[in-house]
Amino acid sequence: MESFTLTHPAATPLAGAGRQAIVGVVASGNLEVLAERTAQPDLCVVEISTAADGFGEIWRAVILDFVERAAPGGVRFSINDGGARPDTVLLRLMQAARALQDATN
Amino acid sequence: MSAVASCRAASWLEASARARVAGLLDQGSFVEFLGPEQRAMSPHLRQFDLPRAFDDGVVVGRGLLGGVRVFVAAQEGRFMGGTFGEVSGAKIVGLLRAARDRAAPSPPDAVLLLLDTGGVRLQEANAGELAVSEIIRAIAELRHAGLPVIALVGGRAGAFGGGGIIAACCTALVISQHGRTSVSGPEVIETNKGVEEFDSKDRALVWRITGGRTRILSGAADRYVRDEIAAFRDAAIALAGLTPPPFACETLRAAQTRLVARRERNGACRDATELWAGDGIDEPDQVPDLTEDAFIALLSARSAQHDRR
């Protein structure tokens, strides 16, 4: 298991007013993403706990790509990963950002 | 089509625990207890270098089912096989005890258990075994108080080990074709008794022995539904509206008498098809291959056989 936190400046706060959303499931090749609006509005924080050791560089590249695509300012994404592929990670992050945007909680 | 409407048409088997709860209950009525943001996670999995889940694989809360106040617990069968661990087990125990105590602000009139489990989580087995026992005790207390406790089984993991016992302790069990219930799972039986006794890789055999069609025909389940969230919802609404049989000695003795008779009648059978043949079903070999429409028609043509509870 490896755990690390990545923080990126985000151009704009994520739209919508939902406070939290969760997508995905912790299983082999899958992951869960909990999105909470608890970061500074100009930052995106991603906390990762992964079963696959030694892929930090790939995580950094995927998270940077995600922050540039989604501009999820103000959001903390917490990830429990069961060894998902990078494309699955990106899709889940996009899904979590959208779910938070649409959430009514 | 709204998100919830599409949720209800969706397959129960394929849905996550959260999607099942959202589609099962009245739209927007679910209020989660101890949600993922609380991060009540397993204190043990880290020691085994295994990933944790923010809800430890169990969603608990309250909501409305056809306007009736209910408490609900749903296991996520894809996380660690939906197993009972220290936290996931305690969440269900706590929910059942809160239901027993008619906790404010929304004391429930029924409890729904969406079981999807291989049983106790081996990495935290002592806590899991205790949780299973406490759940069974809490169900007995709820039944004694006259509250229906309805088990819904149609997930990939089925309801095995302690989950199979819990399903059998509820006031009613709703099952789909894909749902399976038993105590020892196929791999466990094969490991202990040999492949000649039970070939766990023979999926057709596994479903003939443990699957939903067998369980409803033998009277071990009360309702058979299509693999749709809406179908589980309709069955749960119907069952939550029934007055459960009294949880008294005579009820249990009658159940015991029926089970002893069933064992005497079927004890020598080697496969479910032999049970069905003895039960007067035409072409028993065809039962597993019937379409859902044909199987449901077969069920409705049979007289009600309440072989449980």
Q: What's the short version?
A:
The complex is a heterodimer of chains A (105) and B (309). Chain A has 105 residues and is an alpha+beta fold.
What does this entry look like structurally?
The complex is a heterodimer of chains A (105) and B (309). Chain A has helices at 56-70, 86-102, and strands at residues 2-9, 20-24, 31-36, 43-50, 75-81. Chain A is an alpha+beta fold and 105 residues long. Chain A has one domain. A 5-stranded mixed sheet of chain A has the order 1-4-5-3-2, with helices on one face. The longest helix of chain A is centred in the C-terminal third of the chain and has 17 residues, at 86-102. The radius of gyration of chain A is 12 Å and the shape is globular. The model of chain A has no long low-confidence stretch (mean pLDDT 96). By secondary structure, chain B is α/β, with parallel strands linked by helices. Chain B has a domain at 3-181 and 221-245: 2-enoyl-CoA Hydratase, Chain A, domain 1 (Alpha-Beta Complex), CATH 3.90.226. Helices cover 41% and strands 12% of the residues of chain B. Chain B is built from 12 helices and 7 strands. In chain B, strands 1-2-3-4-5-6-7 form a 7-stranded mixed sheet, with helices on both faces. The longest helix of chain B is centred in the middle third of the chain and has 20 residues, at 125-144. The radius of gyration of chain B is 19 Å and the shape is globular. The model of chain B has no long low-confidence stretch (mean pLDDT 94). Classes of the chains: A alpha+beta (105), B alpha/beta (309). The A-B interface holds A 1, 20, 22, 25-27, 30, 32, 34, 36, 49-51, 78, 80-82 and B 16, 18, 35-37, 46, 49-55, 57, 76, 78-80.
What are the salient characteristics of this protein?
heterodimer; A: 105 residues; alpha+beta; B: alpha/beta; 2-enoyl-CoA Hydratase, Chain A, domain 1; 7 strands; globular
N to C succession of SSEs of chain B: HHEEEHEHEHEHHHEHHHH
**Biggest sheet details of chain A:** 5 strands, mixed
The general outline of chain A is: globular
Number of domains of chain A: 1
Strand content of the residues of chain A, in percent? 25-35%
Mean pLDDT of chain B: 94
Mean pLDDT level of chain A: 96
CATH topology of one domain in chain B: 2-enoyl-CoA Hydratase, Chain A, domain 1
The largest sheet of chain B, given as strand count, sense and whether it forms a barrel, is: 7 strands, mixed
